[in-house]
Design a protein that fits this description.
Strand order of the largest sheet: 3-2-1-4-5-6
Mean pLDDT: 92
Low-confidence stretches: none
Number of strands: 12
Strand content: 15-25%
Structural class: alpha/beta
Shape: elongated
Radius of gyration: 23 Å
Helix content: 40-55%
Largest sheet: 6 strands, parallel
C-alpha cells in the first residue's frame, strides 16, 4: 500500500476526553503513514507530554493560533491580515474566503485564515495532503474554508460525533456551512446510523457517507473472568464528565432506590460535581457512593477491573446535546463489565438489551434501580451477557479494524485523485 500523507484537523489538541483522535493518529503512525495534526489551538498542555510520549506524536502538531484567543488579540490579527492583503499579490483568494467565512458565521475560520497569513512561518499554508480527516463538523467547516483560501490542500473527510449533530446552538450556527461542506467535502463519516440518517435529512448525498465507528484497542483490554459472580455489595462504576447529558443524577438516584447493597464509584469532574455530591450524601444504609475525581487511563482500567456494572444513563440535555456512542461503554464491554445504559443516541447500535448489556429509558430512575437488582440476583445470565458484549466489540468496535477501514478510504481517495 502507498505511504500516505495524512492530516488530522481538530479544533484543539490534545483533549483527553477525545482519546479517539489520539488513537487514530497513533494507528496511522503505526501503519507507517506520514501524519500531521493540525489544531486550531493548544488544548490541555498538562497532558501533552504523556500524550506525545505514549503515542509518538511529538513534532507532528501544527497549531494555527499559537497564542490564547482574546478579543483584542483577534481584532489585531484581523487588522494585520487586512493590511497584508492589500499589499500582497494574489491575496484576494484568502480575503474572499475570510469574508465568506465571517458572513456565514464561522468566525473561527476567519481567524484561522488571518493567523496563517500573518504568521511568517505559516504564510504559505499548512501543506497538501492525500487525505485530511477533520473531527467534528465545525472543524470540517474550518478545514473547508482554509482549503478555499488556498491554505490547506487535499480532499477533506469530516467525522461527525455528537454535540456537532445535536446541540441546538451549534446546529443553528453551522447547518448552512454543513450544507456547503456536503458539496465540498469528499467523505462524510458519521459514527452511527442515527447520525447518518440525520445527515441525509439535512441534504447530504448518501453516496458520500460512510459510517465510521469509534472504537477501543481490544488487544490491550484483557477480559476478566466471565463467569465470576457479582460481588456483595454490588460494585458499580461510572466514568464521565460531570455534565447534564451523562445523566449521573439519575444514576445516583437509581443506586439509592435499588434494593441490593451497592458500592458505587464515580470517576470524573465537571460543572455538576457539587450538585451530584449533595445528592449522593443522602444515600441510605447499604449504599456507598464515592467520588474519585479525575483519573488517568490506567487508573480507569483498574477501576473497571473491580466493577460488576458500568452505569452510564446518558440523556438528551436541555441544549439538545447528545452522545455519539460512548467509548467508555465499549471499554467496559470489552473487559467483561456488564453495562447499564439508556436508549439514547447510538447506544442501541452498541448494546442489545438483555443480550450484550441492559438498556433503560432516559431519566427512568426506577428502571435503573430494577436493573441493578437484576444484575445482582440473576447471576446465571451474566456470563452470557459478558461474552456477547466482548464479541460485539471484537466484531464492530476494534480500533485495528476501524483504522484499516479509514486507511482504505484514504488510499482509495488518493488513488482516485492520481488517475
Amino acid at each position: 500500500m502507498k505511504k500516505l500523507k495524512v492530516a488530522f484537523f481538530v479544533g484543539e489538541f490534545p483533549v483527553l476526553s477525545e482519546t479517539f483522535v489520539i488513537r487514530q493518529v497513533a494507528g496511522f503512525i503505526s501503519a507507517g503513514h506520514e501524519v500531521t495534526v493540525i489544531a486550531g489551538k493548544w488544548g490541555d498542555r498538562a497532558c501533552a507530554h504523556e500524550v506525545y510520549v505514549q503515542n509518538r506524536i511529538a513534532e507532528r502538531v501544527n497549531v494555527i493560533r499559537k497564542l490564547d484567543s482574546s478579543t483584542a488579540r483577534d481584532v489585531l490579527s484581523v487588522l494585520r491580515f487586512l493590511a497584508v492583503s492589500i499589499v500582497r499579490p494574489n491575496a484576494w483568494r484568502r480575503l474572499r474566503a475570510a469574508v465568506d467565512a465571517y458572513r456565514s458565521g464561522s468566525r473561527a475560520s476567519t481567524l484561522d485564515i488571518a493567523a496563517l497569513t500573518t504568521d511568517r512561518s505559516s504564510a504559505d499554508g499548512l501543506g497538501v495532503y492525500d487525505f485530511v480527516i477533520a473531527h467534528f463538523g465545525p472543524a470540517g467547516v474550518r478545514a473547508m474554508y482554509l482549503q478555499k483560501a488556498g491554505l490547506l490542500g487535499g480532499p477533506i473527510a469530516t467525522v461527525f460525533h455528537g454535540f456537532d449533530m445535536s446541540n441546538h446552538d451549534v446546529v443553528k450556527k453551522c447547518l448552512n456551512n454543513y450544507k456547503s461542506l456536503f458539496e465540498n467535502t469528499r467523505r462524510l463519516l458519521p459514527i452511527s446510523e442515527l447520525w447518518k440518517k440525520r445527515l441525509i435529512e439535512w441534504g447530504a448525498p448518501p453516496e458520500k457517507i460512510t459510517i465510521l465507528r469509534m472504537g477501543v484497542d481490544v488487544d490491550e483490554l484483557e477480559i476478566l473472568n466471565q463467569d465470576r459472580p457479582p460481588a456483595e455489595p454490588l460494585r458499580v462504576l461510572s466514568v464521565a464528565r460531570l455534565t447534564e447529558k451523562k445523566g449521573l443524577i439519575y444514576a445516583i438516584e437509581g443506586v439509592k432506590q435499588a434494593n441490593t447493597s451497592i458500592h458505587y464509584e464515580i470517576i470524573g469532574s465537571g460543572p455538576l460535581e457539587s450538585l451530584l455530591v449533595e445528592a449522593a450524601s443522602y444515600a441510605p444504609a447499604g449504599k456507598k457512593i464515592v467520588f474519585l475525581g479525575s483519573r488517568n487511563q490506567q487508573e480507569v482500567f483498574e477501576a473497571l477491573s473491580r466493577a460488576d456494572v458500568f452505569l452510564l444513563p446518558s440523556i438528551t440535555a436541555e441544549t439538545g446535546d447528545m452522545e455519539g456512542i460512548p467509548v467508555s461503554l465499549m471499554e467496559a464491554m470489552a473487559m467483561g463489565v456488564v453495562v447499564v445504559a439508556t436508549r439514547h443516541s447510538g447506544n442501541p447500535e452498541l448494546v442489545e438489551n438483555e443480550v450484550s448489556g441492559y438498556l433503560v429509558e432516559e431519566r427512568d430512575v426506577g428502571a435503573i434501580a430494577a436493573t441493578l437488582d437484576r444484575v445482582s440476583s440473576e447471576r446465571a445470565q451474566i456470563g452470557a451477557i459478558r461474552r456477547a458484549a466482548r464479541k460485539k466489540i471484537e466484531d464492530e468496535f476494534d480500533n485495528k479494524k476501524l483504522d484499516e477501514l479509514l486507511i482504505e478510504l484514504a488510499s482509495a481517495q488518493s488513488s482516485a485523485l492520481s488517475t
